[in-house]
Amino acid sequence: MASDLETKAKEAFIDDHFELALDLYSQAIQLNPKNAELYADRAQANIKLNNLTEAVADANKAIELDPSMSKAYLRKATACMKLEEYQTAKAALETGATLAPGELRFSKLIKECEERIAEETDELPKQMLKEVTTNSVPAKEVEPVKDAPVPMAVVAPPKPIYRHEFYQKPGEVVVTVFAKGIPRECVKVDYGEQILSLSIEAPGKDAYHFQLRLFRKIIPEKCRYDVLSTKIEIRLAKAEPIHWASLEFSREVVVPQRVNVSSVSANQRPVYPSSKPKRVDWDKIEAQVKEEKDEKLDGDAALNKFFRDIYQDADEDTRRAMQKSFVESNGTVLSTNWKEVGAKKVEGSPPDGMEVKKWEY
């Protein structure tokens, strides 16, 4: 039965009936889920329909089932190049080239990836400057994208969906999938330059697949995940310190906001979305209390504080003048003029109605 469906799917693909081919391949995969060829061929149908993230997922599954299948790496690279994930595409092509040394398409596409990577590296600073300094284009002026992905009809039966949410820091995005009691060996996470793929296949439970194209690019080798008792926590390392407006990629015009990490000081901690009660900034409260306490000073206390502030911010000559005048005048004179004080001894200057008296020992 699966072979008949596969034959019909190939015929539909040759006749450019890609949606029918996709449906037939999906039915064949349900009957024979361990057939790597079916996943590789369905990946090609998804590429034709511009279902690029689905194509990458199918190619990854084919590679998992048969790591020696060179065309699975070719399918993955083709989809990644359309997604502008040239580093991931190049890595897949290099592996595929070792499996099929005589296939010229691999070397040709590797060269194209290298050219694209060089262009991307050179253009990125200019692009970021333009995005930050240019106002957003009104929605009515944005031309529709001709090659927008066509939504894929869900063929398989409905799967249980685990709730997920995310929050971000300047350098990473943390995705939380609330899946309870899942063994770590049943969880598989794949990262692309701009793709996140999660698979959960636990005994006694329906398989769950979660995949999306991310808002911006990440650094796959720096990403990691933890499987906890109540959730799966995935940490994505941002390729750029830019605020993500959403977790998933959108073709809408968005001006990214670059996060200046160096400007975040201890007293200006970044605030992230959270469902927890609002935290109290005790440092701020302490500073306010100290400021109010200082404002209530009066009389001698206020005067002493005034002179302490002057001494703390003064240069070396001013400090020497203050020390010399205060000591030599028995605390009755405080001068900040070193040129005047340094040339002579400072005589005492008692308040009106009082006189300076020398103590005899």
Care to give the gist of this entry?
The chain is built from eleven helices and nine strands. With 361 residues, it is of the alpha+beta class.
The CATH architecture term of the largest domain is Alpha Horseshoe
The CATH top-level class label of the largest domain: Mainly Alpha
Q: Could you say which structural class the secondary elements and strand pairing correspond to?
A: alpha+beta
Radius of gyration: 35 Å
Number of domains: 3
**Separation, N- and C-terminal Cα atoms:** 119 Å
Strand order of the largest sheet: 1-2-7-6
SS field, number of helical segments: 11
H/E element string? HHHHHHHEEEEEEEEEHHHH
Can you tell me about this structure?
- A hairpin with a 7-residue loop joins strand 4 and strand 5.
- This protein has helices at residues 2-14, 18-31, 36-48, 52-65, 70-82, 86-99, 104-133, 282-295, 299-313, 316-328, 338-341, and strands at residues 164-168, 172-177, 187-191, 195-200, 208-213, 224-227, 232-237, 242-243, 257-258.
- The protein folds into 3 domains: 2-122, Serine Threonine Protein Phosphatase 5, Tetratricopeptide repeat (Alpha Horseshoe), CATH 1.25.40; 163-237, Immunoglobulin-like (Sandwich); 301-360, no CATH class.
- 25% of the residues are buried.
- The radius of gyration is 35 Å and the shape is elongated.
- It starts with a helix and ends in a 20-residue tail after the last helix.
- Helix 1 runs antiparallel to helix 2 (18-31), helix 3 (36-48) packs antiparallel against helix 4 (52-65) and helix 6 runs antiparallel to helix 7 (104-133).
- The chain has 361 residues and is α+β, with helices and mostly antiparallel strands.
- A 4-stranded antiparallel sheet has the order 1-2-7-6, with no helix packed on it. Strands 3-4-5 form a 3-stranded antiparallel sheet, covered by helices on one side.
- InterPro entries: CS_dom (IPR007052), HSP20-like_chaperone (IPR008978), SGS_dom (IPR007699), Sgt1-like (IPR044563), TPR-like_helical_dom_sf (IPR011990), TPR_rpt (IPR019734).
